[in-house]
């Protein structure tokens, strides 16, 4: 697993690992202003996840999961397509992003 002392790079590495573990499913982290901060997976699915995190329509027929993440400085939305909600999927990804935001 890749590691980094840079917060943005560390989040990107984590999302890449989660997307790879889930067969390339799209995952995206969007800030409270709707800006895509990090994402990974198949490009079409990653951008669809970003649109869902921004409160816009995604791909029809796909299952979306999103989680709110709140840090001391801002709030974020982590969204994905077709990922399980447990520790192996979005739950673990949200926990990891939260730890990175708190540590760096």
Task: Give a verbal description of the structure.
The protein has helices at 7-21, 43-53, 90-103, and strands at residues 27-31, 36-40, 64-70, 75-81. It has 104 residues and is α+β, with helices and mostly antiparallel strands. The chain has one domain. It has a four-stranded antiparallel sheet with strand order 2-1-4-3, sandwiched between helices. Helix 1 (7-21) runs antiparallel to helix 3. The chain is globular, with a radius of gyration of 12 Å. The two termini are 18 Å apart. The mean pLDDT is 83.
Outline the fold blueprint:
Blueprint: H1 7-21, E1 27-31, E2 36-40, H2 43-53, E3 64-70, E4 75-81, H3 90-103
Antiparallel strand pairs: 1-2, 1-4, 3-4
Helix pairs in contact: 1-3
Radius of gyration: 12 Å
Figure out the total of helices: 3
Q: Detail the poorly predicted runs.
A: none
Order of helices and strands: HEEHEEH
Mean pLDDT metric: 83
> What does the largest sheet look like?
4 strands, antiparallel
Strand order of the largest sheet: 2-1-4-3
Classify the beta-strand content into a percent band. Answer: 15-25%
Class by SSE composition: alpha+beta
Write down the domain tally.
1
- Which bin fits the share of residues in helices? 25-40%
What is shown here, in short?
With 104 residues, the chain is of the alpha+beta class. Helices cover 38% and strands 23% of the residues.
């Amino acid at each position: 697993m890749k590691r980094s002392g840079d917060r943005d790079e560390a989040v990107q590495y984590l999302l890449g690992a989660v997307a790879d573990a889930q067969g390339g499913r799209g995952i995206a982290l969007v800030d409270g202003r709707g800006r895509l901060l990090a994402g990974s997976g198949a490009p079409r699915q990653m951008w669809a996840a970003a649109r869902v995190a921004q409160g816009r329509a995604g791909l029809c027929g796909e299952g979306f999961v999103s989680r709110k993440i709140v840090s001391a400085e801002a709030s974020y939305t982590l969204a994905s397509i077709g990922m399980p909600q447990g520790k192996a999927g979005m739950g673990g990804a949200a926990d990891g992003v939260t730890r990175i935001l708190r540590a760096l």
